[in-house]
Every structure is written in C-alpha cells, then in structure tokens.
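Researcher: Please predict.
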Amino acid sequence: MKPAIFDYYAPETLNESLNLLEEHGFDSKILSGGQSLIPMMNMRLARPGVIIDINQLHELDYIDITDDYIEVGGLTRQHSVENHEKINEICPFLIEGMKYVGHSQIRSRGTVGGSIVHADPTAEIPVMLTALGGTVMVQSNEGKREVEPDELFLTYMTTTIEPEEILVSAKFPIPKGRSGQAIEEFTMRSGDFAIVLAACNVKLNDQNEISEATLVLGGVDGAPIVLDEVTDELMGLTPDMETIQKSTEQITELIDPEEDVHASDDYRKDLAVTLSNRVLMKAIERAKDN
C-alpha cells in the first residue's frame, strides 16, 4: 500500500521546524527514524497532510553524559545508545533494554525521541525512562518545558506533547550507590512487539534492605504502569524469592489488560506476575554486587 498524498518539508534548523509546526499544527507529523510512522502511513492508519523531516537537525543528534544524567537528543539513533561504551559502564540497563527494541536494522534508523513520542504501550524506551525516573524536554516557539513520564504518556500512542512541540531530548538519571536494574519481556518471536514487559530499579542500604524501588509494566494498559503497591510492601525488607512472589501476587488485581488476538487478559496477568518476579530478583542481585 501507499500513503495518502502529503506535502513534504526538510528543514535544516530547529527554528525552521518549529515554525512549520506552528503553521500546520494538527495536520503535520514529524519524521525522524520513520520506523513507526511510515508503516502507519502506508496502511492509511495515519494520513498527515504535511510531513516535516527533521533528519537534517544534527543539533538533536547527541549523547551528553554528566555526573547525574545521560542526556540523549531526540534524533539520536537507538543503535548509538546501544553501542555507547560509557553508557554500558554507568547504566548497562539502558543497553540491556535497547537490545530488545526490534531488530538491529530497526535500531539503526529508529530514534530515541521517536519511540518516546510514538508512545506504543509495549515499547521498551518509555518503560525504561519511567523506571529510571527520567524526563523529556519538549520545545515550541513559546519555549521549552520538562515533562515527567506520568505527565507525558496518556494512553495508546498518545502523549501530552502539543502539535507545535518537538521532543528535543530525554534525560535518563544515572543510577547511584548500591542500585540494580533489570528489564525482561515476552514476545512471540525475537524482535516482535512485546506481549508484556517489565522493568525494575532497586536501591539497597548497607544491610541489603530495599530503600528505593520502582517496578514498571508495559503491554498491560495504554501507557506504562508504575506498581507502587508492590514495591511499597518491600520497603525496608531483605527480600527473598518467597517475599517477592507474595508481593507480586496482587498484580493480577492491580491491572486490567485488554484481550486481543495475541493473548487473553488472564495470560497477560500471569506474564506480568512472572516477569515482575524475575526483574525484581535480578535487580536486587545486581544491587548487591554494586
């Protein structure tokens, strides 16, 4: 299939891009990696009248590492993060999750910002951003604003980014101290969209008790879900598998996934519990090693 007719622009600066967005608004779509937008246009699921190709905006293609954050430009390719040696040293969790994103050919074109803005509920990058407590920076002609994940993701493929705004960067906090992270997902085949995925970020004190924890699920709702009810029960404990399994039993009551051709709601609930157990245990063991 072919996309519907559209006007095409290839701005060379961010200001030019923002002016085009301001002019065309809801009728426009930004093209970066194109790994999601182009197939949707070919299937006529998306029919923008204007395409704004930002691949010439090299100012948005960067990785900047400070003492506290890994800041990634919105146009940065996923493979650039996946193969970044410094990120592998200070936050291997990002590398681990990035390898789950489609296939290597997809990651060579797909962008970090594009994945976040597309807001697929089974996408790995939004789940990792949420687990680490990161933020994104969006910009329009009116200025910039920093947005946290719980304010950003609304529901299936829907965010609070306005039509005249561009996601210019994402900040991933660098885990400190005795912390550990893990991500796992279940797919029908390698590289497929996840049926369910889970990610966890845990911090231990000197007595191996959990002092901080974030557990995030994808694929069970329209946006990543943070399960504070589960992690709250683990605070101050030195958990073993039995303790973790007891705390994750409630997940089946906390989520209400939809049934589709790939999995029933009960199957997704079972997967959510299993994957949550795995990432919690793995993150805790990694925290002990740090």
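Model: The chain has three domains: 7-53, 58-173, 179-289.
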